[in-house]
């Protein structure tokens, strides 16, 4: 199916002409499940100009070969109110939230043989986190995956997708949040140094529901994550937080698209990254679309980057597209810089050695967002990982 418009829930067949609405942004000009509908990438496209295509191991051009073994999903017994199953691609839920708007996402949809579904029952209040560990078994050859998170009305749950190991992976994640639900989704990319992952996550948030989305990227050779969200009813909200730390040679890229298409919804995007070492490269691109019908919108996005050594590069591009003046607020900000000399001077003037002072500044830079991760073992592990990276450059 090809749609030159904003995507609607689909039936894996052609849509009637009456279902087609004019495209709003460049990224929405084409949405399709068919790889052939997307032109080959050459790196000059606006959405791909920061991404080193040569490092994608042919995920972008169809010349990939299948991996001998794909990633293994590990999880314990599901808590009461939660079921975890594998379903065939013809399950009606698959593709109901996410219709790919880039070639690699369409490739992942086409090549994935099945989907993993995490379903949370209506009114269930799940007090323990649902943790899925995705363990890569080798970077040789390409793997493809699909995950569907289904949260029922008025449910409350925390779901963690914890990625580790070696892999070459393209995957899609769909997040369907029912009305009045309160959901936290944490995704951790703590891959081995040779891993490559290109991922698209799409959330549809129901009336009066709140999604807290936390993305952490530390490992891998190249990780590119696109998180898009739309609202299915008024008074819905998303808080999207991101933490990333690029070391020498790493490419970590994060993109968001928050589509305000109904009235009285709220979005908040706050991503923070640190970089160190030669050729460390991070990219953050945040897009917020406020359609003409989305009166009463409240939105803000900010990205901050801390460059710790020479030779590292951070690209940061916030964007707002506003089609109505009847909103509560809208704004964006971006900042990239080195250590704050005033902060260092303040700490050193109180007897703290320079190395310890620098470490305290970086800790403070990440602390606010790390504390938003509600799973203590993961929060502690990520804190320790950041500390280990700082020690590499004597901070």
Automatic annotation (TrEMBL):
Residue intervals of the SUF system FeS cluster assembly SufBD core domain: 138-365
GO biological process: iron-sulfur cluster assembly
Organism superkingdom: Bacteria
Region (Disordered): 1-23
InterPro entries: Fe-S_cluster_assembly_SufBD (IPR055346), SUF_FeS_clus_asmbl_SufBD_core (IPR000825), SUF_FeS_clus_asmbl_SufBD_sf (IPR037284), SUF_FeS_clus_asmbl_SufD (IPR011542)
Family: Belongs to the iron-sulfur cluster assembly SufBD family.
Entry-linked PANTHER family: PROTEIN ABCI7, CHLOROPLASTIC
Protein's recorded name: Fe-S cluster assembly protein SufD
Organism: Phytomonospora endophytica
């Amino acid at each position: 199916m090809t749609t030159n418009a904003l995507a609607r829930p689909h039936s894996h067949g052609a849509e009637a002409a009456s279902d087609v609405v004019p495209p709003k942004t460049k990224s929405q000009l084409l949405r399709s499940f068919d790889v052939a509908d997307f032109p080959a990438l050459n790196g000059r496209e606006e959405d791909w100009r920061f991404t080193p295509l040569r490092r994608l191991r042919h995920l972008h051009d169809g010349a990939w070969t299948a991996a001998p073994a794909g990633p293994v999903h590990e999880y314990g017994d599901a808590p009461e109110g939660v079921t975890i199953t594998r379903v065939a691609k013809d399950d009606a839920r698959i593709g109901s939230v996410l219709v790919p708007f880039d070639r690699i996402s369409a490739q992942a949809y086409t090549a994935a043989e099945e989907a993993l579904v995490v379903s949370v029952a209506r009114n269930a209040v799940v007090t323990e986190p649902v943790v899925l560990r995705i363990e890569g078994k080798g970077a040789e050859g390409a793997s493809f995956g699909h995950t569907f998170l289904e949260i029922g009305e008025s449910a409350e749950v925390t779901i963690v997708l914890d990625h580790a190991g070696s892999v070459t992976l393209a995957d899609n994640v769909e997040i369907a949040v029912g009305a009045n639900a309160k959901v936290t989704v944490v995704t951790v990319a703590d891959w081995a140094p040779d891993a490559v992952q290109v991922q698209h996550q799409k959330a549809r948030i129901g009336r009066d529901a709140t999604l807290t989305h936390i993305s952490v990227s530390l490992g891998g050779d190249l990780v590119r994550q696109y998180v898009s969200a739309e609202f299915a009813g008024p008074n819905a909200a998303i808080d999207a937080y991101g933490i990333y730390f690029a070391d020498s040679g790493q490419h970590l890229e994060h993109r968001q698209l928050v589509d305000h298409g109904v009235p009285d919804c709220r979005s908040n995007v706050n991503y923070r990254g640190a970089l160190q070492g030669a050729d460390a490269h991070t990219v953050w691109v945040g897009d917020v679309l406020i359609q003409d019908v989305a009166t009463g919108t409240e939105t803000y996005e900010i990205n901050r980057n801390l460059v710790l050594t020479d030779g590292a590069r951070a690209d940061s591009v916030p964007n707002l597209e506003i089609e109505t003046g009847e909103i509560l607020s809208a704004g964006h900000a971006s900042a990239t810089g080195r250590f704050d000399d005033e902060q260092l001077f303040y700490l050193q003037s109180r007897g703290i050695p320079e190395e310890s002072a620098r470490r305290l500044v970086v800790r403070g830079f990440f602390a606010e967002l790390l504390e938003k991760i509600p799973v203590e073992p993961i929060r502690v592990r990520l804190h320790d990982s950041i500390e280990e990276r700082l020690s590499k450059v004597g901070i």
